[in-house]
Design goal:
The protein is α/β, with parallel strands linked by helices. The protein has helices spanning 26-33, 42-55, 73-81, 91-100, 116-125, 135-148, 184-195, 217-235, 260-271, 284-287, 320-324, 413-417, and strands spanning 14-15, 18-21, 24-25, 37-41, 62-66, 85-88, 107-109, 129-132, 152-157, 200-206, 242-244, 277-280, 291-303, 306-311, 330-332, 341-347, 356-364, 371-375, 395-400, 403-408. Bound molecules: ligand LLP.
C-alpha cells in the first residue's frame, strides 16, 4: 500500500472544508465550468518564475519556459509579460509562442527531428537560436540561411553522457544511449565547420539531462563539460554568448522539489566570470503545482476486495499516472463528514485497464456526484491529453488575482470530427 504524498496542493489551500484557488472554491469552479476541468493558479506561476529568476540574477539569465509543459495561450501570454522566453520543439509550438506574444528574440528551438519547414519558420521569425541536435540539421540550416541571405544563430546540444537521477527511464536524456544531443567531439567539429560558413552564427551551447531532477550535482557536472567546450572554442576564436543548461527541475511530487538556491549556488560557482549569459528552460517547476484537474465521481464499485472510484476524467485527460506511474495527490474538493477511509483505485471511464489516476490510495470514500482534485497536473497534463475513446478534451481555467478566466473552451463533438471527410 502506498502512503498519501505529504501535500501536493500548496497553490490550492483548504480553508474550512473547501479547497480553493485564490478566493474561489474549486467546487464552485467545477459547477460553473463542468468537469473534467483544468484549473491553474497564475499567482503561483508568477511566484515560481520570480524565484528562479532571482536565484540566477547574477548570470543575466533568460528563462525560456518549456512550452511543451503547458502551451495554453493565456498562460504563455502572462509568462511572456513577466519576461519569459520559450523553449520550443515544433513549428506548432513556435506558432503558439508567437501568437501568445513571446518575443521571438527569446525563443530557442530544440528537437532531434526538425523539418525543413520548421527550420525556415524559425529563421523567418528571427528566433534567438536553434539548439541543433544533428549534423544534417546544421547543414540544412546553413542552406536555408544562405537562400534567405540571413545568418542563422545556433548552439549545439551536447550529450554529456550523464545518467540523471530521474524517477522514470523515459525522462532521462543525458546519457549516450539516448537520441538527444551530440557527443562533444562531433559538436566541436560542427562549430569549426560553422566558422567557415558565413551564413551560420555560432551563438551558444546547450545541454538538457532529463526531467524531474531534484539534485543539483548532475547539472553542475553537465555545466562543467559544456564550459570546457566553450573554452576550447574560445582558443579557436569562436566566441559564444550563451550556455543553455536546459530544464528538468523536479517538484519531488510535492514533497520538496529542486532547491533553486542550492542549484544556483552550484552552477554559479563554476559559471561566474565566464562572461556568458545563462539560459534555463524550466517547464514543470513553474507550472506543475499550479494546476489541478477537477473530476466528478461517477460511481463507486467493488470487485473482490478492490474498491474503484470511477471518475469522469481518464487517461486521455491525464496520461501521466498510466504512462509513467506518476503519483498525483487526490483530494476531495469539499471534505465530507463521517466518511470511512478506504484504500481505493481512482479510475477513469476509458476502456483500458491502464486507465487510472491513482492506485492503492487511502482516502475518505467519496460518493457519486462529488468532485475530486488531482494535484500537480499543471505540467504535462493538458499538453499530453488526447481524444482517445472520442472524448472531447477538458476546458482550462486560469485564476489570475481576483479574476477567473476560461482560457480554453471544452471541446465539442464537432471539434472531434473537424477535418474528417466521408469520401
Ligand atoms: N528543455 C528540453 C530540451 C526538454 O526536452 C524539456 C523536457 C524541458 C526543457 C523541460 O523539462 P521540465 O523542466 O518540464 O522537466 N512528459 C514528461 C516530461 C517530458 C519532458 C521532456 N522534455 C512528464 O510528464 O513528466
Amino acid at each position: 500500500m502506498r502512503a498519501e504524498a505529504p501535500t501536493g496542493l500548496s497553490a490550492f489551500p483548504r480553508e474550512g472544508k473547501s479547497l480553493r484557488c485564490g478566493s474561489f472554491k474549486l467546487r464552485d469552479l467545477a459547477d460553473r465550468f463542468g468537469t473534467p476541468l483544468y484549473v491553474y493558479s497564475m499567482d503561483f506561476v508568477r511566484e515560481r518564475f520570480r524565484q528562479v529568476e532571482s536565484a540566477f540574477a547574477s548570470a543575466d539569465p533568460l528563462l525560456a519556459y518549456s512550452v511543451k509543459a503547458n502551451g495554453n495561450l493565456a498562460l504563455l501570454n502572462r509568462l511572456a509579460a513577466l519576461g519569459s522566453g520559450a523553449d520550443i520543439v515544433s513549428g506548432g509550438e513556435l506558432f503558439r509562442a508567437v501568437k501568445a506574444g513571446v518575443t521571438p528574440g527569446k525563443i530557442l528551438f530544440a528537437g532531434v527531428g526538425k523539418t525543413d519547414e520548421e527550420l525556415k519558420a524559425g529563421l523567418d521569425a528571427r528566433i534567438y537560436s536553434f539548439n541543433v541536435e544533428t549534423i544534417d540539421e546544421l547543414h540544412r540550416l546553413d542552406d536555408f540561411a544562405t537562400e534567405l541571405g540571413a545568418r542563422a544563430p545556433f548552439g549545439v546540444r551536447i550529450n554529456p553522457d550523464i545518467q540523471a537521477p530521474t524517477p522514470h527511464q523515459y525522462t532521462r536524456t543525458g546519457h549516450a544511449e539516448t537520441k538527444f544531443g551530440l557527443p562533444v567531439p562531433v559538436a566541436v567539429g560542427l562549430y569549426r565547420w560553422a566558422k567557415t560558413r558565413p551564413h551560420l552564427r555560432p551563438r551558444g551551447i546547450d545541454v538538457h539531462i532529463g526531467s524531474e531532477i531534484v539534485d543539483p550535482v548532475p547539472y553542475k557536472k553537465a555545466l562543467r563539460q559544456v564550459l570546457e567546450v566553450v573554452h576550447l572554442l574560445k582558443k579557436e576564436d569562436i566566441h559564444l554568448e550563451y550556455v543553455d543548461i536546459g530544464g528538468g527541475f523536479g517538484i519531488g511530487d510535492g514533497s520538496g522539489g529542486m532547491d533553486m538556491g542550492a542549484l544556483s549556488d552550484e552552477l554559479l560557482s563554476v559559471f561566474q566570470g565566464s562572461g556568458l549569459r545563462m539560459i534555463l528552460e524550466p517547464g514543470r517547476f513553474l507550472v506543475a503545482e499550479a494546476g489541478v484537474l477537477l473530476t466528478s465521481v461517477r460511481a463507486v464499485k467493488r470487485s473482490g476486495d478492490h474498491v474503484f472510484v470511477v471518475t469522469d476524467a481518464g487517461m486521455n485527460d491525464l496520461l501521466r499516472p498510466s504512462h509513467y506511474r506518476s503519483h498525483h495527490p487526490v483530494e476531495a474538493a469539499v471534505v465530507q463528514k463521517d466518511r470511512k477511509v478506504e484504500v481505493v483505485d481512482v479510475v477513469g471511464p476509458v476502456c483500458e485497464t491502464g486507465d487510472f489516476l491513482a492506485l492503492d490510495r487511502s482516502m475518505p470514500l467519496p460518493r457519486a456526484g462529488e468532485v475530486l482534485a488531482v494535484g500537480n497536473v499543471g505540467a504535462y497534463g493538458f499538453s499530453m491529453a488526447s481524444n482517445y475513446n472520442a472524448r472531447p478534451r477538458p476546458a482550462e481555467v486560469l485564476v489570475d488575482g481576483d479574476e477567473v478566466l476560461l482560457v480554453r473552451e471544452r471541446e465539442s463533438f464537432e471539434d472531434l470530427i473537424r477535418g474528417e471527410v466521408i469520401p
